[in-house]
Amino acid sequence: xxxxxxxxxxxxxxxxxxxxxxxxxxxxxxxxxxxxxxxxxxxxxxxxxxxxxxxxxxxxxxxxxxxxxxxxxxxxxxxxxxxxxxxxxxxxxxxxxxxxxxxxxxxxxxxxxxxxxxxxxxxxxxxxxxxxxxxxxxxxxxxxxxxxxxxxxxxxxxxxxxxxxxxxxxxxxxxxxxxxxxxxxxxxxxxxxxxxxxxxxxxxxxxxxxxxxxxxxxxxxxxxxxxxxxxxxxxxxxxxxxxxxxxxxxxxxxxxxxxxxxxxxxxxxxxxxxxxxxxxxxxxxxxxxxxxxxxxxxxxxxxxxxxxxxxxxxxxxxxxxxxxxxxxxxxxxxxxxxxxxxxxxxxxxxxxxxxxxxxxxxxxxxxxxxxxxxxxxxxxxxxxxxxxxxxxxxxxxxxxxxxxxxxxxxxxxxxxxxxxxxxxxxxxxxxxxx
Amino acid sequence: xxxxxxxxxxxxxxxxxxxxxxxxxxxxxxxxxxxxxxxxxxxxxxxxxxxxxxxxxxxxxxxxxxxxxxxxxxxxxxxxxxxxxxxxxxxxxxxxxxxxxxxxxxxxxxxxxxxxxxxxxxxxxxxxxxxxxxxxxxxxxxxxxxxxxxxxxxxxxxxxxxxxxxxxxxxxxxxxxxxxxxxxxxxxxxxxxxxxxxxxxxxxxxxxxxxxxxxxxxxxxxxxxxxxxxxxxxxxxxxxxxxxx
Lengths: 434, 245
Prior knowledge:
The complex is a heterodimer of chains A (about 425) and B (about 240).
Chain A: E1 2-6, E2 13-19, H1 24-29, E3 38-40, E4 54-57, E5 64-68, E6 73-77, H2 82-89, E7 94-95, H3 107-112, H4 120-123, E8 130-136, E9 142-145, H5 151-157, E10 166-173, E11 175-176, E12 181-189, H6 192-201, E13 207-212, E14 224-231, E15 245-246, H7 258-271, E16 275-281, H8 282-286, E17 292-293, E18 304-312, H9 316-330, E19 338-342, E20 356-364, H10 369-382, E21 386-387, H11 397-403, H12 407-416, H13 426-430
Parallel strand pairs in A: 2-4, 3-4, 15-17
Antiparallel strand pairs in A: 1-2, 5-6, 6-10, 7-11, 8-9, 8-10, 12-14, 12-16, 13-14, 13-19, 18-20, 18-21, 19-20
Helix pairs in contact in A: 9-10
Chain B: E1 3-7, H1 12-23, E2 27-32, H2 35-47, E3 52-57, H3 66-77, E4 82-85, H4 93-97, H5 100-128, E5 131-136, H6 149-170, E6 174-181, H7 201-213, E7 218-221, H8 225-234, H9 237-240
Parallel strand pairs in B: 1-2, 1-4, 2-3, 4-5, 5-6, 6-7
């Protein structure tokens, strides 16, 4: 069936022939079709990484395969969402070792994006907790890959944006929890320097992330609210999955402008207070935006670009200041800007996180957005940083190849396992991957 | 804890009902044709909390095997509290028009096989004076339309058959629940362009399970199809026969 698809940012859009195999056997045989395609889960990557002329949906392959309640090892098909996984594992005293900011992503997507969470500095990325995965190659062969078996394929697949094959199923190691509550602590930082200092001081906190007022200027530049979290020990293991409050249609884009965003950010900053540890439920802590279905529609019909970069720790604070000056001067930017300190990089070839600071924000699409994002891209390149492929819709090929030096190795692994010409997305074409 | 027999367990709507029952810890007996698919679903439902899951691979058009199938389900679970009949195929109207054989085969799958199952199940539930029988019919059964009247007329039979059976079994404390889903986004309807009226199987399933819980007679799922079908059913023949949909 031909339909128009896009990523979560609603930009860019593309006409696409979509098929959604109704079971894993049919998903496997999807590689036999003519031409190249890309696997697509919930379509929650922001840009065009799950866009292609042909896409193969994994949503019907959403079955649990096995869950060992004693060891916390969970095996499931790739189309299952993290949200579904949580409904089963949390009441049994287990939690995801790493989780992104939305639970509406699939297991396969989490691996292909090698997603990170608020505990990156301690736990690394999602892929580091995958004990093994089953992948159907371009040749039709089904292979198991792990850190020990077909390790080159494994490290190309984690963070590989679906370009090595279709992930059919995977096993992950969960972490034990005693409660479905998080003890949260809030600390305000008046400027970017003090925010980065606070990350350093709280490096032993399990979860840490900062909301940042990206529109504040001058002495307030980079003022932030740092949120630290630890798994609580009390409160029970219940999990409350509320029905979504949906945004039923694209709101007029004019509603979100620099004025309303500035107001929102200023109010948010002044409302936040330093707070010692207090218990909050797990779902709103990890997935605040999941309470609003289709929040992406708030950016209007044209959609938005998300920009997420990481810059190295050395000169990181000064460089972060430069980026924030650029953002604040542009007058654009979002009501949810996030700053976080990353830990060390892992062995996966296209995995995004590297040691340093990461900044993520949305830009509503308008005439000047592209220029702003291009300037930020160039600055990131100069600073020795890189952009997150899962958020990207516009990065230039040269930037990608300069900032992901393992891309050649990635291509050779793809060649070895028959992926070339079989798996490609609008993004992989834009970035000059075969 | 309920003992639920699900016939046509690989259908997306039935599977989502099974997930809800599993989360409640119910025991399930799954029947469908595709064994590998059944095994996948059974493993999934166990993880989701079902207290027991058995599978039985049967082609329901083999009507001679229905009694044996019901016996097997009763033996496996030590009785049956709820039966959900959800199997079926979405007929290809155009090719049915060219083939008597295909038309009758569709009627066989979507109506007669269900009638056979219902007849046996009704007698057993009537004898023990308890149980709930739920059948997935369709809005398509409310009025035959050019685009799918083969499927629609099979479903019309199911709607009328269950309506009568509901009256008959009422005095025996057996509930018969007729479900009329509208457009549901499932593998069965993969070829359709999806518009505003399309519902997801998990939301339809919630309504089905609720209807079974409270022993509703007949529901449209989602409920707004009640209004749509009322309007469609009062269109005068003189106009209706000229309409194309």
